[in-house]
Amino acid sequence: MVSSHRSRNEISSFHHRSRRGIWLYMAWCLCVVAMSTGCATTGSSQDPHDSLESINRPLHNFNDYIDDKLMEPVVHTYIEYTPKPVRGGVSNFFDNIGEINVLLNNFLQGKGKQGLSDTGRFLVNSTVGVLGIFDVATSLGLEKHDEDFGQTLGVWGSEEGPYLTLPFYGPTTTRGIPDLAVSTLTNPIFYLNLPILAAGVTFAAPMMALSMIDKRARLDKGIHFRDEVALDTYVFTREAYLQRRQYLVYDGDPPQEEFLAEAEDLLDELEVEEELVPSPDGAQSQPNVQSTTTTIPSLSGQKVASSHE
Fold first, then answer.
1. Of 114, 122, 193, 222, which is least surrounded by CB within 10 A?
2. What's the CA gap between 8 and 135, in Å, rounded?
């Protein structure tokens, strides 16, 4: 009896430390948000979305180092020795758990029809699909969607805020920080932190580890591609993340004005006066380039004329 009582106390202590660790990490993220709001107005950066680049870059390098030394070997072993259908079932299982967060944010964004569809998708895959291991709902015409609280805040009009890189997590923005809490609180595994087999071993711990491995395995080809083609992996990751988030917030249809503004910025860069090229006699001369005018069709149907010299 004494041994059993002691084991229960150890388990309770382990649970307390686990939850305390999660909330401490979230508190750290909120501290980063507070710091970023102060630095955003005073920091200098070439990219207006990345006023905290001096902090983000070292954290990006740290995450890449951890990934190279720890996650990548584990994930490659997982991919090599786990049959693809099994990996697919694991991915489906965790996707199904994530549906709770998706359907909640559907309703928060006012997407009632999509929310009902995702509710049906979750119920079908949780039952007929055996806890989501098999994606039966897709074959029934219930399309999969991708929503989170960060997107909800964007739909509500919240500014994106500075780009952030979090240790052991990766890219996000200040607008995406609250989703860390919401996605955790809508994850059933968070509430199934029950002891099994031995003291200190929980259901959540191996499930969370498997979830991290599954997520990294899905990104493996993309990370390999980035490392192969990117001259600067930090900039590549940042731009890819920000563009994808914009795509998701607007459900794949961002306002045309934003595209036009980006096109105008590109034209402005092209029209910047060229640097003088040194001539053989030491003098500088402007390269003789014939003036041309390029007509660029915009998304609105109008045409933008760009003159290059």
1. 222
2. 38
Report the C-alpha gap between 50 and 181 in whole angstroms.
Answer: 23
Q: Is residue 220 part of a domain?
A: yes
In this prediction, residue 200 carries a pLDDT of 54
CA dist., res. 195 & res. 33, Å (int): 35
Residue 51 in domain:
yes
Is 308 within a domain?
A: no
Question: Which residue, among 101, 208, 219, 96, has the nearest Cα to 150 in the 3D structure?
Answer: 101
Banded pLDDT at 179 (limits 50, 70, 90) = very high
Cα 137 to Cα 128: distance, rounded to the nearest angstrom: 9
Tell me the mean pLDDT in the region 264-290: 50
- Note whether residue 270 is domain-resident: no
Output the CA torsion 269→271→273→276 (10° steps): 90
The C-alpha atoms of residue 162 and residue 34 are separated, in whole angstroms, by 11
Q: Quick check: 88 pLDDT over 60?
A: yes
What's the predicted TM-score (pTM) here? 0.67
Per DSSP, what are the bridge partners of residue 171? 165
List, in sequence order, every beta strand (DSSP E) within 146-207.
Answer: 163-166, 170-173
Q: Determine the 3-state secondary structure of 162 from DSSP.
A: coil
Q: Which amino acid is at 250?
A: Y
Structural domain including 128 reads 2-257
How many domains, in total, are found in the chain?
1
User: Looking at the predicted structure, is the pLDDT value of residue 68 above 80?
Assistant: yes
The burial class, CB within 10 Å (0-12 / 13-18 / 19+), for 171 is: buried
Tokens of 6: 């002691």
The answer to whether 162 and 50 have CB atoms below 8 angstroms apart is: yes
